[in-house]
Amino acid sequence: MATSMVSDELWQLIHPLLPPEPPKPKGGRPRVPDRAALEGILYVLKTGIGWEHLPHQLGYGSGMTCWRRLRDWHAAGVFTRLHHVLLDRMAQAHQLDWTRACVDSTSVPAARGGPTRARTPRIVAGLAASVM
């Protein structure tokens, strides 16, 4: 396998968040290890190559295998939970600088749903009229 992009310490954080391997009642090909698939996902995302161009020689499995694992882990919420775990660890180590944080409406929904789209033009028009 190529140089590892996932340290042992990071893998210890990620591994418990991954869903268990689905059962194979009919047997089949052995599953690519989760760590190898994660390395393949990171390789594709870092280099920008297409999934179908992921070299088998690197030991990550096929590009389609890595893509499916990424899809399944995303659907299972693995990356959201990992983000929270990493934020918690950084906060415990006092490595977060919240003075540089930025939150916008694409990541945080408005309280009580906020105004509907139909009302937005009237609100904006009302604000423009009051400014003039």
Helicity range of the residues?
Answer: 40-55%
Low-confidence stretches: 122-132
Q: State the distance separating the first and last CA atoms.
A: 65 Å
| Rg over CA atoms | 22 Å
H-E string: HHHHH
Average residue-wise pLDDT: 83
Total strands: 0
Biggest sheet, in brief?
Answer: none
Provide the structure class: mainly alpha
Contiguous helical run count? 5
Strand content: under 5%
Apparent shape: globular
Features:
single chain; 132 residues; mainly alpha; 46% helix; disordered C terminus; IS402-like_dom
How would you describe what is shown here?
- This is Transposase.
- Pfam families: DUF4096.
- Residues 6-83 form the Insertion element IS402-like domain.
- It comes from Deinococcus grandis.
- The protein has 132 residues and is an all-alpha fold.
- The chain has a domain at 8-96.
- It has 5 helices and no strands.
- It has helices at residues 8-14, 34-47, 63-75, 78-92, 120-131.
- The longest helix is centred in the middle third of the chain and has 15 residues, at 78-92.
- The protein starts with 7 loop residues before the first helix and ends with a helix.
